[in-house]
Amino acid sequence: MTLGKINAQEQLGLNYESKFVKLGEIRTHYLDFGGEGLAVILVHSEAWSAYAFQDFGPLLTDNNRVFAITRPGYGDSGMGHYDVESQGDYLIAFADALNIDRAVFIGNASVTAELTYLAENYPQRLAGIVYLTGLAVPWLEENQNDPHHAYEMFLRASPTANTAKTDIVAISKVRGVYRPEHYTDDSVRIEVPALAIVSKNGMQGSEKGLGALVYVGSPLMEEVRKQIPPSRTREMLDRLADDPAFRHEVLSNIQDALARQYFLDLATDSAQQNIIYQYHMEKVYPAMIEAQEKIKRAFGEYMKLEKIDVNQIVGYEYRDSPELILQPVKGFLDQLSKTKQ
After folding, report:
1. Above 70 in pLDDT, residue 329?
2. Pairing of strands 38-43, 64-69
3. 10 Å Cβ neighbour count for 226?
4. Are the C-beta atoms of residues 90 and 28 closer than 8 Å to each other?
5. What do you get for the CA distance between the two ends of the chain, in Å?
6. DSSP for residue 182
7. Percent of the chain scored above 90 by pLDDT?
């Protein structure tokens, strides 16, 4: 049941209507981009909202009915549980509330976990899924068990860490217990059409990248940083690496006191940077490669890897460079629509 609208398209000239719907007792915000055809539901990653897709959603309405949900616990939506299973169930409840029998779910970054959960547990409700961050595998224990706390501190330092309704580290710990079925059982097969946007080498291209070291402009991340396509993200990272005064200003403005001191110290400690890098390369990197192979095996012929002409997938191409991914995504949606018919 729709409870109301915020921004009417006809009143403000927007390409969407902002609405609310009840998922159980949770007042849930979403954007309705209109269109007709197979339903598409855009799903934001941590600490964002449906507005992350306000420019991308309208690009998909030629042959599809397009929505973007603000997940419970974020943005203008009411509070909900943050674990992956509950968040995945909310997505199905959202489809139910809009009388959508089957939909294509599209998301990036951490929400890869929710999309995978849906594919394993609600295959009959999915017409397909699109992984905008390619072969992201956010369920690695090696990141969560990092003895140097680089992963945790990077989360604490995130500019979006204070935009969620609960502490981002607490959310990460709740979400961190999730493990897909295929990750622990090699016999699991997922029979849901999937599109994964990958770099020209068939991978994310950022597997050797480490957020904590990128954040302090570490020379160890120079090769990784230079592989990022021109974008707002690249401009920010270049300044962090090349401008010490800017880097110090950014690090000094981290709101979380523990993370702020951690990064101020790390920025001038090359020995500790090397220790953190070695842990990543010896523990996280091989686990990441193995997990990527597992998800490809689980999907088998149902997964299409779409190589685009970049060295590294950032996951925010839909915002910064939609022309890189628009045609592959629309082609995938058109194929699903033909199959449905």
Report:
1. yes
2. parallel
3. 13
4. yes
5. 28
6. H
7. 83
Enclosing H/E stretch for 12: helix 9-12
> What beta strand segments (E) does the chain contain?
2-5, 17-23, 26-34, 38-43, 64-69, 103-107, 126-131, 194-198, 303-307
Write a three-state SS string for 129-142: EEECCCCCCCCCHH
Residue 101 class from Cβ within 10 Å (0-12 exposed, 13-18 middle, 19+ buried)? Answer: exposed
- Quick one: tokens of 24? 């159980």
Structure tokens at 13: 């000239």
pLDDT tens digit sequence for 209-232: 999 999 999 999 999 999 888 888
What is the per-residue pLDDT across 122-149, written as a single tens digit (0 to 9) for each?
999 999 999 999 999 999 999 989 999 9
DSSP letter at 229?
A: P
Q: Which of 194, 75, 179 is nearest to 128 (CA)?
A: 194
